[in-house]
Amino acid sequence: MPSSAYSRSEHLRSLWPWLPLWTVVALLAIFSHGPMPLYSTRTLAVAWEMWNHGHWLVPHINGQPYSEKVPLLFWLIHAGWFVFGVNDIWPRVLEVIFGGTQLVLLSTLAHRLFPNRPWVAKGAPWMLLALGYAFLFGTQIMYEVLLAVWVLAALLCLTPKAGRDEPRWLLFGLCIGAGLMTKGPVMFLHIAFPWLLGPLWSDWANSNRARWYGRGVLAMLLGGAMLLAWALPAGFSGGEAYRQRLFFTQTAGRVVDAFDHARPFWWYLPMIPALLFPFSGWPRAWAALITLRRPLEPGLRFCLCWLLPILVAFSLISGKQLYYPLPEFAGATLLLAGAIAVLREKRPALADNPWLGTWPLGVGGILFGVLLFLLPVLVSHDMMHGEYVDNSSHYSRFFSVVFILLGAFLLLRGRGEMRRLAIAGLIGTLTLNTLFTLTMWQNFDLRPSAHLLGAADTEGRAIGYLGNYEGQFHFEGRLTRPIERLSEGDALQAFARIHPDGLIVARPEKLEATDLRYALLVQPFRSSWVVIWPAASLAELRAGHIPPEPPHPTRVYQVDNWRFRSLQ
């Protein structure tokens, strides 16, 4: 066999342990329930509206240009819809493809940065697939997983490969452009620091600084030109208000004084252990990081040049969400894998110390399994209560066995400790997702409301929404017209006068007797309710009058025992 063919064969075999496992588990998780409001449903609503109305250049939501996002993810969804028709299966499969691509890129990046430590390339993907938050968020139809693909691809272009130390600048620029077309200017932030600090980790950059920075700037300009090639015609097509938001308000508003998700400077720091779980609970990982000493090898310096500055940068940005640094999760696992590889070589006593093993997580898994087993007793004796607790108690004993077995699995000693932890983390996350599907998904499933509104839209009846509508009904209901945003008072009364046969969607925190008597439909949603009214009936009630009795009783959907008791 030729050496190149042999190398490819070996590489494919090295993917086998983790890529098929992750793919199967991800597919099970992402298809265990429908698209999640509001993240996935909003993305699908934009893709549907672009598709239905032929807005191929400018994303739209609820009849208005959508300046918050750029169109690459929507175009990829449309590509599948051209082949398979409009559905929510293809967008979910896309997310699984993105996640698998991310794992492959991480393995390749680890091989480039740690050429003398093959364990890093094998271990880093295992670590990334086991991160609970990253896995669960990766099952949302959102932009960050695709963005992570372009971030890793761009950083891979910067790293040396066999026979070539200079970065692939053209590919670097193209990957930057693809990232910009996925999430906008934040792509620059994700890749800026490894490039700016290149001389600290790259010998080639240190020896060729002028070329490194000069060609890097040209690559950045190429990426920016790709974004402008879309943004300029889109800005003129979308109108003055859209153009203003697209070029100025939207990005600046999140960076300086967030109009949404404003958090304090330190907000990310206490979240890091949760984001890196289960490896944040593995003593050997902490020992590996704490015992790192200078001089650090290039791969570790690369990780630090990437992660530390961007943590500071994201902390300085006013708007914060846990998924904003999702591309950096790969960098965190790369750092952990590199540190553990160094520990295995330079401190074998610590690398084999049983007290630094996975036993704390094993004990925690067993205790959690015992808690799940006892949950029905605790609920029946009024020792624990809550909507999630009460609903979970119906199935918790079946799932307790899984966590007890996973805990025992983590108490095992010997080779493959990290892999055991990764498998346990992945299976544990899938188990929790399945428990959520069986117990709480009914409080997130908006299909009854969306289908009712879709039927009304087909009949030409106007629909209003009290509050801030975020597209959660448009895709599932295949709505073709906007939902009018309303407020209590004059706006509601005017809507009812103009559209006497229209419908109004309300989101009360608690239900009143009138909601169950005069409304068309009531269903739980998150911690509140969705109530769909005939516009005339709601206007009468708000004006202090008694509306006529409805021809049919209110349809009440998916009310669990906890919600039922709250209605009494």
TrEMBL record:
Membrane topology: Multi-pass membrane protein
Compartment(s) where it occurs, according to its Swiss-Prot or TrEMBL record: Cell membrane
Transmembrane segments: 15-32, 126-150, 170-197, 217-236, 265-287, 299-317, 323-343, 355-375, 395-412, 421-441
Main localization (coarse): membrane
Pfam families documented for this protein: PMT_2 (PF13231)
Swiss-Prot/TrEMBL keywords: Cell membrane, Glycosyltransferase, Membrane, Transferase, Transmembrane, Transmembrane helix
Domain Glycosyltransferase RgtA/B/C/D-like residue range list: 70-221
InterPro entries on file: LipidA_mod_glycosyltrf_83, RgtA/B/C-like
UniProt protein name: Glycosyltransferase family 39 protein
Taxonomic classification: Bacteria, Pseudomonadati, Pseudomonadota, Gammaproteobacteria, Lysobacterales
